[in-house]
Amino acid sequence: MKYLVLLGDGMADYPLESLEGRTPLDVAATPAMDTVAQRGVSAQFSPIPEGYPPGSDVGNLAVFGYNPAEFYTGRAPLEAANQGIEIGPNEVVFRCNLVTLDDGAMANFTAGHISSGEGAELIDALNSALADLPVRFHPGVGYRHLAVVAASRNELGGLLQVKCTPPHDISDQPVAHYLPEGDGAAVLRAIMERSQTVLDGHPVNREREAAGDPPANSAWLWGQGGAPVLPSYAERFGLSGAVISAVDLVKGIGRVAGLEVINVPGATGYLDTDYAGKVEAAIQGLENHDFIYLHVEAPDETAHQGREDLKIQAIEDFDRHVVMPILDYVQRQKEARILVAPDHITAISTRTHAAGPVPFAMCGTGIEANGARRYCEIEADRFGLLFPEGHRLVPFWLTTAVIDADALSGVGV
Length: 413
Ligand SMILES: [Zn+2]
What we know:
Elements: E1 2-8, H1 24-27, H2 31-39, E2 41-45, H3 56-64, H4 68-71, H5 75-82, E3 91-102, E4 105-108, H6 116-129, E5 135-141, E6 144-150, H7 153-161, H8 185-199, H9 203-210, E7 218-225, H10 233-237, E8 241-244, H11 248-256, E9 260-261, H12 275-285, E10 291-296, H13 298-304, H14 308-332, E11 336-341, E12 345-347, E13 352-354, E14 358-364, H15 377-383, E15 385-387, H16 393-398
Parallel strand pairs: 1-10, 1-11, 2-15, 8-9, 8-10
Antiparallel strand pairs: 2-14, 3-4, 3-6, 3-7, 5-6, 11-14, 12-13
Helix pairs in contact: 2-14, 5-11, 12-14, 13-14
Bound molecules: zinc ion.
């Protein structure tokens, strides 16, 4: 059996007034995902367990089948794992966004989707200028970087517990209310403040401003944790698999889980990503794997921008350029299943993530249709919440049992 998990990051949303009470997923033309729902089952699941932050780390862990309540260690450690950065016993790794602050507010948490090349130059400058602080920066993709902070044994617990705020949660809000708080916050605040003097007026930023792009004028630290441990996919589920994604977080989960991480050179994490390259890599990957996890970031990024038009485009592109060709492939296989799902809601209205039920659709070998007519939040709601806890999705898409209307009898739990 071949399994294909197609993850549209943050696809789910709430009804919008500007869309006459419909959601982007509802409005978008998605013939391929509708076909998956019609040929198989569609219902809701809840990837974010109660009490956990509704981030891509928690949501993707749940879809991968690692109960976040058991395995969540923060986002940055998973990204570090993908970059081959070792976290020492007296170190804590933070996600470090390059952001644009304007008049004390979080004007742009991606610094206008700064390029990886520009980002790397700025990260270099930070490493040179802040050499006296206990921090080393590591460049990543676009605006997404990492900072490893060293601590004494006494400080370590505090640093792991410091309350940090994801910058995408506070778009256009004054950052003064959201600086790190708690034991160990002082060093983080110092790093962030000092970063501003280094980045302000840096040639990269001067060029960006001249071109009318937002300058990356501050580092923003969040999402910290120590070294992550996951039991391997092979040992937990008896499957060999591969991960295809533009973002370090998802690739990092794959790496820690012992999966192959297939790098697609044109994968950007945005609307211009190389969809065809990802699909080709997925189909090639299935020659020596049971399972492919293909992740597309653009629906989430466009929702953070508060742009329902771009989110609809991202969903339609995902449908046409990823789900359609993969569905074609699945239909030509003797035994294969395809799952389409988001990892959480990313709401246009608030420009950030939310917990709560999201729709999935799945078809293929051993799955009997449950009568769903299309793939969207409203249709999935007719069939209710299949698995209240994210981790219980696992037996669902991996189960060898026939999935039929009886399997959906837990509806409304
Ligand atoms: Zn996400």
